[in-house]
Amino acid sequence: MLTLFPFRLQLRTVVSLTPEPPTEDLAEFCRHERIALLHLETAPFREQVVFSPAAAVSVLQLLIDAERLPLYLHCIDGANNTGVIVMCLRKLQNWSMASAYTEFARFVTDHAVSHEEQVFLEREFRVEVTMPERLPNWLWGGMPVTSHPTLRIRRANTTGAVPRAESPPRGQAAHDPASPHAPRAHESRHVAALALETRPHNHSNTAPLV
Fold first, then answer.
1. β-bridge mates for residue 155, sequence order
2. Is 200 domain-assigned?
3. Helix (H) or strand (E) holding 41
4. Buried (b) or exposed (e) across 140-172, using 16+ Cβ within 10 A?
5. CATH number at residue 32
6. Is 86 part of any domain?
7. Positive or negative, the Cα torsion across 94, 96, 100, 103?
8. What does the alpha-carbon distance between residue 88 and residue 120 come to, in Å, rounded to a whole number?
9. How many domains does the chain have?
10. What is the extent of the structural domain holding 126?
11. Percentage of residues in the chain with pLDDT exceeding 70?
C-alpha cells in the first residue's frame, strides 16, 4: 500500500506523531521516493493532550510551508493526536471553535472533544507562528497575514513579531495542492527528529471553559 502514495498524492513530506521511530520499511520507502520523513516522539493518546504548544506549533509550521506539501500527517490511530494538530491549523485559519470541534468529533471514537483538548486549543495554544517564505494557496490565497485575533504572527527571518495589519478571513477550508517537486535532498536520506517537549499536560486543576 505504501507504493501507492507517490503516485496518488505526490508526497514531499511525511510527519509521524508516534512513540517509536518510523518503521524501517517506511523509512526505506521515503528514502527511495525522495520524501522527507520527520518524527516527533509522541505518547499514545490517553484522555489528555500529549504534546506541548511548542511541539504543536513546530508541526503546524510544516503544514503551512508550501515547499513541504503535499504532506502526510499521522499518529497511531489517526484520530486524537493528529486531530489536535488539525484543530491548531483551524485556529490559525480563524475557524470558529465550534466548527473546529465539529470536524474533530467526526474522526474520534467517542465523537466528542474532551475538556483537556478544549483547554489546550483555547487557553494553551496561544503561540507565535512563523510564516514560511511561501504559503500554500489554500491558506489566505498564499498571501501571509500580518496579525491574528488569537495567535502571534512572525515573518520568516525576522527578529520580532510583524506590525499589526490585516487579519485572516474566518473559516477557510484547507486541501493540500498537488506538487511535483522533490523534497530537499539532505532530508530524503534520513529520519529527522523534531526534538521538542512532548510531556503530557495535567489539566486536573483547570477550571471548566465558559
1. 131
2. no
3. strand 36-41
4. beeebbbebeebebbeeeeeeeeeeeeebeeee
5. 3.90.190.10
6. yes
7. negative
8. 9
9. 1
10. 8-193
11. 70
Q: What angle do CA 144, 146, 152 make, to 5 degrees?
A: 110
Task: Select from 171, 43, 12, 202 the least CA-distant residue to 98.
Answer: 171
**C-alpha to C-alpha distance for 32 and 28, rounded to whole angstroms:** 6
Distance of CA 32 to the CA centre of its chain: 25
Work out the average pLDDT over 125-135. 95
* Residue listed under C-alpha cell 477550508: 173
CA distance 205 to 210: 15
Contacts (Cβ under 8 Å, ≥6 apart) of 82:
17, 73, 74, 75
Task: Tell whether 202 is covered by a domain.
Answer: no
Domain-embedded: residue 210:
no
Max distance between CA atoms of the chain, in angstroms, equals 50
Asked if 166 contacts 146 with a C-beta cutoff of 8 angstroms, the reply is yes
Residue-wise pLDDT for 62-82, tens only, equals 999 999 999 999 998 888 899
